[in-house]
Known about the structure:
single chain
Amino acid sequence: MPTIVFASSKGGAGKSTSAVLLATQLAEQGAEVTLIDADPNRHVAVWASKPGRPPNITVVADVTEQTVIRQIDEAARQTAFVIVDLEGTASRMVVYAMSRADLVVIPTQASLLDALEAAAAVREVKRQEEAFRRPIRAVILLNRTSAAIRTRMMQSIAEEMREAGVEIFSMQLHDREAYRQLFALGGTVRSLDPKQVRNIDAAAQNADAFAAEVVSMLQPAEEVT
């Protein structure tokens, strides 16, 4: 079953948020999901400790360099999707996890410096392709963008990435209060209390679009197999 890895050479890029959003959206559609927290900050484990985690999401937090490959392989045999949240630095654990990835998602904010970091992460994935002699698809996700405003810089960054042959999501993950509140309150976007959190419907629709595009990226590989 497909393994989706969230990676970035820069901390604070939104890997954990993106990973939890993808896991919860897939789970709400009925899929069995394993969410592996391989980030020393353990943001995913914090979310999982809160009430409201869907019962079809299994969270694995006791991950080491020595066990990560085995844990990914075991999860792939047991659940429909495996999602791995990696640490924000280059390490052997990152390399090992990428060796099992069907898709590497690289979240980045829409700034020039962040875009350069994201491009470096794509190059690292390409090096792993050569090392493991297998294709590993890497796609950049513009994260924490404004739902109302598309800045000229953001459009320029996206265009430059595409011109350079770097694949980028057609959708963008917006800066939403609901996404931040997941780690304080737990559960899924749709389970949040509208009396406490604003614009839940818009946040859920944005997360739906993210999950749908991820699934569409995995579909050709599934059809080939």
